[in-house]
Amino acid sequence: MEGMQAYGAGKAGGTFDPVTFFQQPQTILRVVSWLFSIVIFGCIANEGYINRPKEVEEYCIFNRNQNACNYGVFMGSMAFLCCMAFLALDVYFPQISSVKDRKKAVLADIGVSAFWSFMWFVGFCFLANQWQVTKLEDNPLREGGDAARAAITFSFFSIFTWAGQSFLGFQRYKLGADSALFSQDYTDPSQDAAGAPYTSFGGDDLESPGGGGGQSNSDGAFDGTGGYQRQDY
């Protein structure tokens, strides 16, 4: 029964095993993507804004383009929340009994992961381009250079971690549903038992030891032919 699964998870109602959960490739990729988003967000938010020695106002380290820093901060924070949401869904996924709901969850995983992979590709190209055209006089002290390069590097790595999640989701989708364990319209077994028609213990055609039916015995007992027999004391 271990190999019989629906969309990558067994029959609903099983116990949650944290060790097995965190050893799954999909969970590992989600955690790695979650860490990458923290690094990108932290690098840009903490060291992504600098100013010239004679200026007070701070500008984005990426060619003084505020949109570049805003894009990185927004993507990092949203990717962080998205990873958390899908990790929670992965924990709850084995408890979903409906195959239709599991299918929707897997399709959402494929679409969202592919979307984030594309967005990180755009972000990597955007940040790398703005860093390449950054002028030396805008940052003569070369402050925040390591943070900027780290944000670009982890944006590049995020492309493949999210693409890997989309690929694993597609593999789960191809697994489909096992008809031996699941149905398209799942019904709780307790509800089936409650809704089943009541069957009496003694059937209508229950026969007496003598071979006659219960109705004939009843008629013979109450037809009055036996009469009253007097008992002598």
TrEMBL record:
**Domain annotation MARVEL: ranges:** 21-174
Kindly report the protein's main subcellular placement as a broad class: membrane
Q: Which residues cross the membrane?
A: 31-51, 71-93, 105-131
User: Membrane topology per the record?
Assistant: Multi-pass membrane protein
Sorted keywords for this record are: Membrane, Transmembrane, Transmembrane helix
Q: Which InterPro entries match?
A: Marvel, Synaptogyrin
The record's annotation in Pfam families points to: MARVEL
Cellular localisation: Membrane
The Gene Ontology CC terms held by the record are: neuromuscular junction; synaptic vesicle membrane
Q: Where is this region: Disordered?
A: 192-233
> What PANTHER family does the entry give?
SYNAPTOGYRIN, SYNAPTOGYRIN-1
Please state which protein family the record places this protein in: Belongs to the synaptogyrin family.
Its recorded name reads Synaptogyrin
Q: Per the UniProt entry, what species is this protein from, by scientific name?
A: Betta splendens (Siamese fighting fish)
